[in-house]
Automatic annotation (TrEMBL), chains A, B:
InterPro entries recorded: Homeodomain-like_sf, HTH-type_TetR-like_transc_reg, HTH_TetR, Tet_transcr_reg_TetR-rel_C_sf
Superkingdom in the source lineage: Bacteria
Domain HTH tetR-type residues, every copy: 15-73
Organism, scientific name: Actinomadura monticuli
DNA-binding region: 36-55
Protein name: TetR/AcrR family transcriptional regulator
Pfam families noted in UniProt: TetR_N (PF00440)
Gene3D superfamilies per the UniProt record, alphabetical: Tetracycline Repressor, domain 2 (1.10.357.10)
Keywords assigned: DNA-binding, Transcription, Transcription regulation
Amino acid sequence: MPPASTGRRRRADAERSIARIVSAARDCLSRDPNASIDDIAKAAGVGRMTLYGHFRNRRELVEAALADALGTGEEVLSDVDLSGPARDVLSRLLDSSWSLVAESTALLSAAEGVLPAATIREMHAASALRVEELVRRGQDEGAFRTDMPIEWLVNVVHYVLHGAAEENRGGRLKPEETGRIVIATVQSILAA
Amino acid sequence: MPPASTGRRRRADAERSIARIVSAARDCLSRDPNASIDDIAKAAGVGRMTLYGHFRNRRELVEAALADALGTGEEVLSDVDLSGPARDVLSRLLDSSWSLVAESTALLSAAEGVLPAATIREMHAASALRVEELVRRGQDEGAFRTDMPIEWLVNVVHYVLHGAAEENRGGRLKPEETGRIVIATVQSILAA
DNA sequence: CCTAACTCGTACTTCACTGTACGACTTCTT
DNA sequence: AAGAAGTCGTACAGTGAAGTACGAGTTAGG
């Protein structure tokens, strides 16, 4: 059994396995928050025991998957050009991240089943803060509304993205249209 | 065992039990879509076996709960004053139904786990049609936007309501504010 | 090339939930 | 008041997933 939590060095193949498992976990849990450990191991092309070698239990696995998703989210966010009016920044931001956020909502709901709410909020803090700052900036510019709690403005964006993902999955929204519609919808919500 | 599906008359106490069970099912499933049969029976103050006496399996129970929720939804909808501009009608409609719809989203997701998608859509058809008609009317009046599929416009309202319910549950949105915020948010989305 | 690290199958225990079987008891209803 | 209808506990079988134990085989890396 690999040294899981200790700071020891890991062998390259172990590293590879972990990467595949985490990726598979993101995949499976995004489709079905109740996906079993077995499903995930299979999807990763790895024995269930290998998985348990790296993650003591479902909790740890879900946490790793969520952390990974948030990590790539952070990457994307930090690549977005922040110059110009908040409205435009928001459009660019949504354009490059809506699908990612959308796909992760199911993963998030999986996390809600096994991780304490405080942990989840904490993991989200970084990204949430960025969006919140953007909204605040838009408000200062007079472009975004101020008649609702900022927390609601930030969170409702998530719910819209979640919805877009659902509609996509159900074939009720064409993938090529989704970006445009998401952006237009969110802009309408935030506009002053 | 009572005659479940046959058209036979039921005794008054059975009728009462069923009502309590359905109500408890709505309650429990709205809080947790994975609530067990046992939880629901306990919440109804009824033995598990009594429950099985009236509902052959989880599927039937969930279906009954959903049907019941949709039924009260229909009642509320049919009480809404439909006169005047679509914008105003929408406000009245949301004001009297947002909490109901919001609470039922979890129940709906429970249903998605056990009922065929077609059945669910069909059960929803009546209410969905009303909302769709209202949106269409608003479009004809020039009050509502026409640059997105109408299906999206209708469904995104659900997602916003779902979000409002979540925020409420998490204490991030004050109950007394929620109505106002929901209405304002939805109006912004639909406005031309 | 040797050894520790890793993989991973099989088999097991535990656990929660579903649904069934039986039967004794209670309460409507006529 | 009698019988049908309904209540409901206990007990059982089946299922599916979580997590543990063991151990034999494989691979990376000094």
